[in-house]
Predict the 3D structure of the following.
Amino acid sequence: MSALVSMTGIGKQFPGVRALHDARFELLAGEVHALMGENGAGKSTLMKVLSGVYQRDEGTVSVDGVAVVFDGPRAAQDAGIGIIHQELSLMNDLTVAQNIFIGREPRLRFGRLDDVALNRNASAIFESMNIGMDPTAVVGSLTIARQQIVEVAKALSYNSRVLVMDEPTAALNDAEIAELFRVIERLKNEGVGIIYISHKMDELKRIADRVTVMRDGETVGTVDAAGTSVSDIISMMVGRELQEERVEIPDLASAPVALEVNGLSRGRAIQDVSFSVKRGEILGFAGLMGAGRTEVARAIFGADPLESGRIAVDGKTVDIKSPRDAVALGIGYLSEDRKHFGIDTEMTVRANVAMATMSAFSGAMGVMNEAAMSERAKHFIERLDIRTPGDTQPVRLLSGGNQQKVVIAKWLMRDCNVLIFDEPTRGIDVGAKSEIYKLLTELAAQGRAIIVISSELPEVLRLSHRIAVMCEGRLTGVLPGGMATQEDIMALATQRDSDGTAFHGQETA
Amino acid sequence: MSTETVDSGKRSVGELISSVAQQKLLAFAGLIVLLVGFSLASPNFMQTANMIAILQATSVNGVLAIAATLVIIAGGIDLSVGTLMTFCSVIAGVILTYWGLPMYIGVPGALLAGVASGAFTGLLIARFRIPPFIATLGMMLVFKGLSLAISGARPIYFNDTPGFDLISRGSLIGYFVPSLPIPNGVLILFVVAIATSYILTRTVLGRFTFALGSNEEALRLSGVDINRWKMYVYSLAGGICGVAGILLASRINSAQPAIGQGYELDAIAAVVIGGTSLKGGQGTMLGTIIGALIISVVANGLRILSVPQEWQIVVTGTIIIVAVYLDILRRRG
Amino acid sequence: MSTETVDSGKRSVGELISSVAQQKLLAFAGLIVLLVGFSLASPNFMQTANMIAILQATSVNGVLAIAATLVIIAGGIDLSVGTLMTFCSVIAGVILTYWGLPMYIGVPGALLAGVASGAFTGLLIARFRIPPFIATLGMMLVFKGLSLAISGARPIYFNDTPGFDLISRGSLIGYFVPSLPIPNGVLILFVVAIATSYILTRTVLGRFTFALGSNEEALRLSGVDINRWKMYVYSLAGGICGVAGILLASRINSAQPAIGQGYELDAIAAVVIGGTSLKGGQGTMLGTIIGALIISVVANGLRILSVPQEWQIVVTGTIIIVAVYLDILRRRG
Amino acid sequence: EDKPYVALVSKGFQHQFWQAVKIGAEQAAEEFNVTVTFEGPDGEGAVDRQLDMISAALSKKPAAIAIAAIDSQATVPLLRDAEAAGIPVIAFDSGVDSDIPITNASTDNLASAALAADKLVELIGGAGKVAVVSFDQTSQTGIQRRDGFVDQIDSAYPDVEIVAIEYGGGDHLRSAEITKTLLLAHPDLNGIFGTNEGSAIGVALGKQEAGSDVVVIGYDSGAAQIAAVRDGTIAGAITQNPVGIGYHSVEAAVKTLNGETVPAHIDTGFYYYDASNIDDPTIAAVLYD
Ligand SMILES: Nc1ncnc2c1ncn2[C@@H]1O[C@H](COP(=O)(O)OP(=O)(O)OP(=O)(O)O)[C@@H](O)[C@H]1O
Ligand SMILES: Nc1ncnc2c1ncn2[C@@H]1O[C@H](COP(=O)(O)OP(=O)(O)OP(=O)(O)O)[C@@H](O)[C@H]1O
Ligand SMILES: [Mg+2]
Ligand SMILES: [Mg+2]
């Protein structure tokens, strides 16, 4: 059987960056082919070349053994290649169904739209994915996770022969991931070739048939998924071995409470949430999508208003009306939506990293000390291994994972006493992840209070000294770290209100 | 953010209008407050004749604002609506008066000039990637200069085309309901508003108009030929400016080459007062009509009250800000 | 999209200017092309007196364009620059002529009026969340009406304030280099440009100006009080409009309450021709100055060539589009 | 070419009035064998834009320059430049506060507006309410036309009340809207004075649309206004002699260049016309369309 897609000798140069150099890739019909590599290895770029978004500088791409040149996304679509981009590219003002079928709307005569059929078709796709979603909801009002699902549905709607998924699960929880994998399985049986990019190593074993690893824009090799261990793949990616580490729980009996939250409420999103976190402690927050963890974090940070509740920092009740108040009190919040709330893509790495710390770099009359800023930025670039040609590179030119590292650096630089990290490792490769875990543990050891919201249970288990679990806006329990299991967490995460409000939410577990 | 027009399923036009009206209640209520306020302040305000005068004063600006709305929803801006209107009326003058051709050639000719001009502007924006502000600023001057050059910098009168003035000034409604002599110009405004509203909510062009304004890059990545659709949007807007040109020319029974500049600001103001965001991706025609009416009512009411003109200007500015602030409060609360 | 001003490390001012100049080479080259073209077409163009006339014609629009640039980089738009300028010149007239106070009170008083007015506009935008287009449109009318009301709708002459006209018309440079009688107005334009350029690239206010324009929400979530900084930006812009008001009043030795509207379009055009995007988050003062010069050179050159006025308008529109297109080609290539 | 070049910088150029001045200047240019250029700022009132135009005109080294100054003082420094360069200066339409201009060819706006007041009062029967729709609040011409009218009413006609003075920018449509509102706000209004061409046509249109029989006095001419005077929508109008203004300005420049003396003021005159005398040769000669 000849390859569905074969790419050889692909090269792609950006100003100051050689993103691809002699990259190879081959996809067979009916296989799930994982594409792995560190942040900035060139995975997304290679896929953009395949899907007609970028033009390659050199190399050949053939589909069904025939060499092709795609002058745009349309040409690639016509050749049966569909892609889910790593960065969401949806039209926020349009509805879910309108987004999915944009450019391919069911039509009546004279260019009139058949919105009934449109919504029906969209519903059918969500049904086949076994996910509840209102096709008439406006996309801009959805959470990132829901938007990610819309992207997946959109890609499926093309009925492509080749489907590229660039980190489709970065924002999804386990239940949704399971549904996605079921869909992938079905497509695979129908003979569709799937290229799957992810930094979640456990997913490899579950769906991949073959794995191609990239490093620094080159293809390191292609291996059989079943016959290769995860650690081998990791060492192909990062060029060294990584050892598994377990969380060590420090003794915090005498440590002072850094942040205490009492009876936090707002509508249905946050219902009477109370917890505290001590200096030196890492408190994990687990829960299903929409459990309200982000809402709680934003409310504490003053990004959204709250109806009632008391927040105390270092034992003193405080009134936080805006993020500015929060930051002044030593609270930092890293948003789960880096593109909209985390980074300023137009600005440089240096400017972004220093954004929350400007007063430290400005002298009399507000004149900035660029040299000091640069020095600090470079320190963090090195510390977090941010792949960038320099600290003056605009952030928009960095790969997704490296952008995430920039946001982390911003809050590390601010040196807060209470740090709330919402999905901090979203899109970050395994090697860098373990670096970040080490860093968080270090920060805690220095006496800071850390809250980590994560939808990846292994991450929560690996990091947390205690684990708070939320469900439908309520805090359903706090588990001790170290000994809790995934099952314990899931039990609390699905513990709905006893008075039977369960029917309100779509059953996703 | 309200995007009520986008997510319309298959509903009856009546349902559609009522749901939109609900959403816009306070902008509409702002208009009502103004009407009531002026009525209380002066007995001369709330007369049929004055209401008709207000509607007629809205017709040209309203039609221009509709053109501007389309472009703004698509994420652009059109500074050339005013002088393109003038250009189209001059073209009508050339065809009808200079060449002596009949109305059924002159009027479509002027509309076609509008469509072609809009298409050209669209080409500059879509194909040559000139930012809309610059492309339409440049074209604003080009249309203005051409109007003067073509007309010989003098007004062209339509005295040889009997019936031309009836396009705007006649009253079809008044013919049937003599007590309600609403001029045809007003009728045309509402026809254009309903037609474009239909296009926006019910056709592919409308869908892509919202999509262009919402996330052009995402639309492109979906394989849509965004350049083509952008050109359609600007062409349609150009044609609507042509309608405004005919309305204006018919009302003053002449093509005045020197006017038009400055009208774009009133048109854009009507759009924004009507709740359409300059960021693109959302907006309604009903809002725009309400916005245009608010502008006319304020101008008319202040004159009826004999407010000194410098204070009229100050109050108009204040009312624009307050009207929008009320709308913001409503959306938030 | 280039964001060269943002990522300036610690470099010497000379290095900075040269690097910026490099980036802007073609916009600059466009200017050069125009200068050479007009010189070849008419021997009257390239005379010291005419060059000085062009610079002087740029001074008021250039200063207004600088104010507009700040606001646009911060993601806003300012339609009120023209009438705020007029308002400030009227305030100067009231203080100096009506009240008979000395210049060292009148000039700072007018600037203060600009800052306060800008702060008020900023308050509407930051605190009350009125979209900048509407807030500044409303304030445009408010300033216009107030100028007329305060002045009694008549020009205020500065005949009792000897030396006032020297602010713009005197020549400090000419005093030292008699062969180069560049008026002070031009000098002030460049001082304002350099000062604001310094603020933009070297100070926290500048950094936040860019950040407000490219991702306001991210800035807010970084713990920055965005309302406060927005107000600073509009206040600074208002103060710069005050400078323009003084320049204008001094040049025509009177405060003319009826002018100002329409100037905002020229100012914004200069900004956009200079490569600053209306989307916000990027832009340079050097670009704006080049943009303003292009506008003046075109106007002057076409007059020198005695092009009929209606064709001057057409050609100006065309050149604006072509100049921007050249700049787009350069950035792409 | 070696023809002498005379630059005319006016206050505007789009209005028919200025186009007529331009025609007069071109007639004289033909007759006296000189080249002329004619330009003016887009919107009247743009004082500094006019200065830029004068600067550019001076750069062209004209033999003479003729200026209709928007502001009586602002142009003075440039006039000094002209004087220093030996370029004779002619003023037209409106004067400057300087003795540099050799002559001033203009209409007496105060007197002409007073005549408009006389005629309007006569037509409404000596008593009643009148209004003014003017084009501009701040320009010299706008102020004089308004004040000439108002002062005459106030001083000579105690039974006539001025109920409103509005400004429509000379824009037909805006002036029409203003007129309709005036008629609604003051149902007993007897007369309206439209102080320039655009205002007058706008007033006539507003009157028509409102179906009113208010008495309208206009100013200037143009095809629409002439037609309205013929059919009685406008009872009568004042006309200046714009062609004459243009002609005399150039003529004065040529005479100065030839060393002849010209009077310090050239009164180009004004006339009242209505349906009865519109075809008189003296009147027909100064009307333009
Ligand atoms: N448009 C661009 N201009 C300049 N550099 C770019 C551009 N796009 C990508 N790069 C660079 O190319 C390299 C490869 O980026 P790519 O996005 O393909 O990485 P990736 O493997 O997908 O990483 P991640 O896992 O973080 O998403 C990175 O160094 C990135 O900074
Ligand atoms: N199915 C849904 N459709 C639309 N909005 C939803 C849905 N589920 C949750 N939300 C919104 O998300 C809010 C809570 O989401 P939040 O982001 O705080 O949860 P989370 O626990 O952080 O989960 P996530 O992993 O999605 O970030 C809800 O109050 C609701 O506004
Ligand atoms: Mg990637
Ligand atoms: Mg979340």
Q: What stands out?
A: The interface with chain D takes residues 44-45, 47, 49-50, 53, 56-57, 60, 148, 153-155, 157, 159, 165, 169, 248, 251-254, 256-259, 262, 296, 299-300, 303-304, 306, 309, 312 of chain C (CB under 8 Å). Residues 64-268+275-290 of chain C form one domain. The longest strand of chain C covers residues 156-157. Chain C is about 75% helix and 0% strand.
